Model the fold of this input.
Amino acid sequence: MRIAHVLRRISFADWGGTEQVVWNLARAQMRAGHDVRLFATEALYRGGGPDAAPSPGNPPVLRFPCVYPWFPMTRRVRSTLDRKGGNPLAPALFRELRRWGPDVVHCHAMGRLAEGCVRLCERTGARSAVSLHGGGANVPAAEAASLREPTRGLFPWGKALEKALRLNRRVPEDFGGVVCVGEDEYEHWRAVHPRVLFLPNGVDVSIFAGDRAGAGSAAGPRIVLCVARIDRQKDQMALVEALPALPGDVRVRLVGPVTQPDYRDALLSRAAALGVAGRLEIVGAVPPSSPELVAEYRRADVFALPSRHEPFGIAVLEAWAAGVPVVASGAGGLGRLCAANPGAAATFPPGDGAALAAALSRVLSPDFDRASAVAVGRAAAARYDWSALAARLLDFYAAL
Done:
């Protein structure tokens, strides 16, 4: 089977949850004997990464120029849209996609890319599926408005083009199948669409398993690790606010690409105002499933994910697989994941900084039953193997 995965971007220097899901599913589909390619725009790509050289184990990645249809389009605005909220036009991508002739087109984006996928499949007869990665059912209104801020006051010439090209397909309604990462989306769409699959994110347990060297040792600080985009959705500000309430040897370490630079600046400014600037480290992005990422987990004492909304939470699976106790917000699919695995994570209400600080204090306490939490977490992670998830997805394709 020829399977095309379509993404807005895939850059290994600016890695996010969607890219990680697609990359791992594609690899698992290849191991099952299928011909798989990834089609993406050139957004944020600066070369390098495991797709830079052909490899029997990695899917080919084809990247194409894209245009954001607003005027005027400055370099600053384009950079912002590349990182988050962009809705590009990429005609060359669809020309090559049609030339290749896939049996299945699986879209992992919304907006114009999704509409293009629907239109192509209508013309070619390919089966179509779309994944809802972003937890759209739970995005607060204020955050949704912030995505439109970069283009405020610009002329939207793309709307006239869409009208001329009749790009008016409904997304995700007009796709043959809808794949939901979060249970909230699944509950919504299964009531209105005939073919909906709940497919949670996964983890390669073998990569993260092993002994954790150095964590909790008397020789160094205790580390609260957060692996997530530096982004308001992830609410790293709650960790900054919690720091003054935690013992002085505790450090917060933020690992992940910066998708909102102004938010990073706000984190640093607030840490300075609270007198904890020396206890906050912003590491930036590290490659997915890399030795560098594994090392981050292995030296952590606690993993924390305080997201305001979250459809699932891949990093929680990684922490469980690595044997790190987890503190997570009870938001959306993240809260459901933790609730489905009692004892694997301490949860708190999203946005409640005092509750986060209290949960971290309990997990860092000498009285905390760390061995039990680690054992339950590792058992939970083992239930989300990528190969099993990919097999479920292939069955879903066959039924479209």
The mean pLDDT is 89.
